[in-house]
Amino acid sequence: MPIRRARPVRPAYWTHYDFFVYLICFLSKLIIIMDPNQQPYFPDGLNMLNDEFDISEPTHTQAGPSGSGVTPTSRPRKLTSYVWQCFNIVQMTLLNGTSSLRAKCKFCHKDYATSTGGTRYLRRHMHKCMPAHGQVDTTTQTQLQLHPDGSVTTWQFDAMHTRECLARYIAQTDQPISIGESPFYTELITSAYNPQYEPVSRTTTRNDLIRLFETQRDDLVAEIQHLSVSVALTSDIWNACSKQDYLCVTGHYLDSDWRITKRFFGFRPMDFAHTAENIFNFIIEVLETYEITHRILSITFDNASANTSSIALFVARNIPQDGGYFFHQRCACHIINLVVQAGLKQVSDQIDRIRDAISWIYSSNPRFSEFKRHCKLNGLKPRRFQTDMPVRWSSTYLMLQNCLEYDTTITCFYNMKLTETGQLSPKLLTTDDWYVAKIFFQFLKIFYNATVTLSGVYYPTSSQVIHQIVEMSELLNSYREDEHLGAAVVVMETKLKKYWANILLLYALSAIIDPRVKLSGLEVLLEFIDINLSIDYSEQITDIRTKLFEIFRIYETRFGNIDIPQSTRPEIEPKQTSWSLLKL
Fold first, then answer.
1. Which residues form the BED-type domain (predicted)?
2. Among 49-53, 362-366, 458-462, 543-547, where is mean pLDDT lowest?
3. What are the E-state strand segments in 84-213?
C-alpha cells in the first residue's frame, strides 16, 4: 500500500497577507484624480465606505514616455453626499491671490472650504439655513402623520406653516401676539411636541396675522362672487370693559351646498359719534370691501334711533334690492329683552332683596365658609351662586334657577346674621319674596326658551318668530289677572304690542312657505294672537297676500330656470300651542 504524503499546511500569515493585498488593491481604486479646470468627482463606490469623505486633493501622475503631461488614473464621477443639494462648488480667488474651490450655499450664499475632513460642517449649516429660508429639509428622518380619515402621509417640519398655525391659534382663541416668543410656550412646544420649533417674535406674528386676514378676506370675496345668493346683514355695537365701542357687521348667506353660513365682515372700534351718518358710512365701506353692495337682502338692527335713521340713507343709496320688501329688520331677541326688562321693573323689590342677600354672603370669605357649613348641616351641597347682570335679563333667570332650591337655607342664614349684627328689618328676606320669585321664574321660562330658539345661527329662525309670539301671547293672557304678576303683565303686553302689532313681512312669508303652515295656517295663528292681545290683523293679512304674489313673480323671473337642491327642514318643538292650533 503506497504511503500518502501529508498536505503541507499553509501558514496563517499567508491568509492575512492575501487579505491585506486585496484591501490595498481595492483602496488603490479610490484615489481621486482631479483636473484643476473641472469640478471635483469621486470614484464609484465612495459613499459605500465613508459618507463623511467629501473632496480630496487632486492627484496627478508623471508624464509617460510620450510626454503628454498629467493624465488621470481613474474615471471621475459626481459628488454623492446629500449636502450638495444645498451647496455649489465654485472657483473663488482668495485674498492672497490664490484660486481655490469653495462650497457656496444656494440660499444664503455663504461659502465654506472644501476639504477632505468630511461634510459635517456643511450639513450643520444646511439644517439651519434651509428652514430659515422656507425650504423643506428632506434629509432628516421621515415622519408619518395620521389623518382623521385613517390615511397616513409623510410629514416634514415647515417653519412658515408653523407661523401660520400660530397666527390662526391666536386669532381663534384671543391669545396675546407675544405668545410665540414666550419662553414657557417655547418650552412646551419644543419639549412635548416639536424640538425644531423656533420662537416667533411679536412683530413677525403681527405681520402673519395681517397676512392671514388679507388671505381670508380675498378667499371670502372670491367665494361670494361665485354664488348667486343674497346676503342678510346684522349690525351691533359692542361695549368692551375698557369702555371702547366696537361696531360689528355680520353676514349670513347660503353656500354652494345650501347650508347657512355666518361670516364677520367687519369688526372695528368706533372712535366716532353714534350717528346715523357714521354708522351708514362704516357699513358701506365694509360692503364695498367685500363687493356685496348689490347683494344685500336685509339689515337687522336693534332699536337704537341712530340705526333706524340710517335706513333712510341706505334707501337713498339704492342698496335694497327687489323693492326692499325685507330690508329693515328688528332683532326679535332684542324686542323680547325689552319686554322682559319692562316686567322685571314691576317685581324689582323682591328680586333686589334676593340679589343683595346672595352678594352679601359672598362678599366675605369667612362668611361664605360659615354658609357652606350651614348648607352641610341642612343636607345641601355647598355652592356659589352667580349674580345677574342688569343688562341681561337671561342672567336673572339663571340666577333664580340656581338659588330657588336653597331658598330656606339662604333665608335662615341671611336673616340670622343680620339680626346678630343689628341690621334694619326691611333688608330681611321673607317667604313672599321667594314666592314671587318662583312664580316669576316659571313665567319667564317661555321667554327664555323663545330667546334661545331665535338666537340660532345655523338654522332658519324667521319662520319661528310667529310661533313664539303665539306662545308669549297665550302666557300673558293667562297671567293677566294674577295677584302678584298682574302689573308686570300689563306693561309687558304694552311693550310687545308696540313692536309686533304690525307683523313684519319677513316673518309672515317665512311661515307661509313652510308647507305645514301655508297662508291658511298663518291666518289661524294671527287670529289666536288677536284673541289673546286684542290685535286686529285682518288688513295685514290682505296686504301680506298681495306682496306674496309680487315677490313670487320676482323670484320666478330670476330663478325659474335654475334647478335648486332641497334644504333640510329645521326641527321645531311639536308640543307648542301654535302647532296644536294647526292640527298637525
1. 78-140
2. 49-53
3. 87-93, 99-105, 111-113, 143-146, 152-155
**Contact 250/299 with Cβ under 8 angstroms?**
no
Sequence ranges of the domains in the chain: 12-132, 154-226, 233-330, 342-443, 456-581
pLDDT reading at 42 higher than 50: no
Q: Roughly how many angstroms between the first and final C-alpha of the chain, as a whole number?
A: 123
Question: Residue 63 corresponds to which cell in the numbers above?
Answer: 508624464
**How far apart are alpha carbons 513 and 460 in whole angstroms?**
12
What residues form DSSP beta bridges with 99? 93
Using CA atoms, how far apart are residues 352 and 412, in angstroms rounded to an integer? 17
Closest CA to 237 of 187, 195, 271, 192: 271
Cα–Cα distance measured from residue 327 to residue 346, given in angstroms and rounded to the nearest whole number: 35
How far apart CA 496 and CA 489 sit, in angstroms, is: 10
Q: How buried is residue 141: exposed, middle or buried, by Cβ count under 10 Å (0-12/13-18/19+)?
A: exposed
Q: Is the pLDDT of residue 355 over 80?
A: yes
Q: Which of 36-50, 92-106, 424-438, 507-521 has the lowest mean pLDDT?
A: 36-50
Q: How far apart are alpha carbons 554 and 445 in whole angstroms?
A: 41
- Cell 468630511: give the residue: 118
pTM beyond 0.85: no
Q: Using an 8 Å Cβ cutoff, are 354 and 433 in contact?
A: yes
Entry field: residues in the chain: 584
Q: Are 299 and 234 in contact (CB under 8 A)?
A: yes
Q: How many CA atoms lie within 13 A of 521 on its CB side?
A: 22
C-alpha cell at 138: 428632506
pLDDT at 22 (0 to 100): 57
Instruction: Give me the long-range contacts of 256-263 (CB less than 8 A, separation at least 24).
Output: 256/226, 256/227, 258/564, 258/565, 258/566, 258/567, 259/458, 260/457, 260/458, 260/459, 260/460, 262/457, 262/458, 263/220
- In 3-state terms the chain splits into helix, strand, coil percentages (rounded to 5) of 55, 10, 35
Kindly give, in sequence order, each residue whose CB lies less than 8 Å from that of residue 342, ignoring residues fewer than 6 positions away: 488, 491, 492, 494, 495
